[in-house]
């Protein structure tokens, strides 16, 4: 029942059993990350029409701004979805915490901001691409994510770790205007947040909206054109 409800609200979803990777998770985030055993991972698609115009955004500030707004609005939308799931779980009599909205909860503290990459990979619904974005087979990286940990009994829905499907592809490497992606399998080494940030800052200095989404647009797993 619970996962049917989650599916009805999500574009992609899955369940991770945090106990399978508890040592690594606790090392990164602290003990509270394993307060509840299961993590429901929800992916919500960005507006396809707006994403499809990203290549035009480098020469058109209105298009860049439209993408920037969509990017931030998608966080509001996924927050709404997460709260609906939270209410549903509570109505069933179980506990849960939305990891991306920890400021709401007094009894859970993490050492660092939670990354949905950790939960989606463990749930088997995505991998971290060379561009360091959480990438799915169905929609590439064109999604916004949320993770809800819970003690609701979800063992039958848990997935297995998804390995990268990037393979020999280097489309985002070639397309990145900031030279921030190199062709290595390990996303920690292939993606430079400094170079990415420098490029986006340079756009801002030139008076453009502070946004660049070429790596999100170009990935062939999402780009079906
Ligand atoms: S956001 Fe732009 S600059 Fe940063 S990695 Fe992606 S394509 Fe490169
Ligand atoms: S464009 Fe290719 S290399 Fe880059 S994240 Fe997508 S599949 Fe991986």
Automatic annotation (TrEMBL):
Please give the Gene Ontology molecular function terms for this protein. oxidoreductase activity
Q: Which domain of life is it from?
A: Archaea
In this chain the 4Fe-4S ferredoxin-type domain maps to: 157-187
Signal sequence coordinates: none
> SUPFAM superfamilies under this entry?
alpha-helical ferredoxin
- Matches recorded under PANTHER family: IRON-SULFUR CLUSTER-BINDING PROTEIN, IRON-SULFUR CLUSTER-BINDING PROTEIN-RELATED
Q: What is this protein called?
A: 4Fe-4S ferredoxin-type domain-containing protein
Which organism is this protein's natural source?
Methanosphaera stadtmanae
